[in-house]
């Protein structure tokens, strides 16, 4: 017997204050209704051994920023759930991938999606990992396409056509660049 797909819009998210401390919960759909409620989220970006980053194009059925290119995967931990554990689950669900993830920082952003009227207002934990030899097996309900890209090429693309990418992607890149030295040290 197959399980019905999870209604992700009704799952609980952890609301946070301006310092990222938990202050309550609400459903995903409520947190993303304008003007938005600040809540915990995560963004994963995987690298290959050549230094390329794995991006995904969000599926057309996404309720926020559909069909835009973004980091490898993203989502929300359940209230009290460790961020890295939640990120590993979403990585498997969205792209059929598994690898060790390391948190390199967090940032706060708020962005409205003019196409859907929904809002992102997130305390976003950024995690990185290395993918060697595995090939993404995307869930078509989550991911329309995927591609590897060099960091400089992505920065150029973001400058040339920012409307083709999610509004949080530049912040993810900034956190990774700021934490690069720390991340490198943690792997030695």
How are the elements arranged and paired?
Layout: E1 12-16, E2 22-27, H1 28-31, E3 39-47, E4 53-58, E5 69-70, E6 73-75, H2 83-95, E7 102-112, E8 119-130, E9 143-149, H3 151-160, H4 169-186
Parallel strand pairs: 3-8
Antiparallel strand pairs: 1-2, 3-6, 4-5, 4-9, 7-8
Describe the structure.
The protein is an alpha+beta fold. It has one domain: Nucleoside Triphosphate Pyrophosphohydrolase, CATH 3.90.79. It has four helices and nine strands; from the N terminus they run E-E-H-E-E-E-E-H-E-E-E-H-H. The strands form three sheets. The chain has a four-stranded mixed β-sheet. It has a three-stranded antiparallel β-sheet with strand order 5-4-9. A hairpin with a 6-residue loop joins strand 7 and strand 8. The N terminus and C terminus are likely disordered.
Query: What's the CATH class label?
Result: Alpha Beta
Number of strands: 9
Number of domains: 1
Query: Strand share of the residues?
Result: 25-35%
| CATH-level-2 architecture | Alpha-Beta Complex
Taking Cα atoms only, what radius of gyration do you get, to the nearest Å? 16 Å
**Helical stretch count?**
4
Q: What is the spatial order of strands in the main beta sheet? A: 6-3-8-7
Cofactor: Mg(2+); Mn(2+)
Main location: cytoplasm
Keywords: Cytoplasm, Isomerase, Isoprene biosynthesis, Magnesium, Manganese, Metal-binding
Binding site for Mg(2+): 94
Please give a quick description of this structure.
One of its GO terms (molecular function) is metal ion binding. With 188 residues, the protein is of the alpha+beta class.
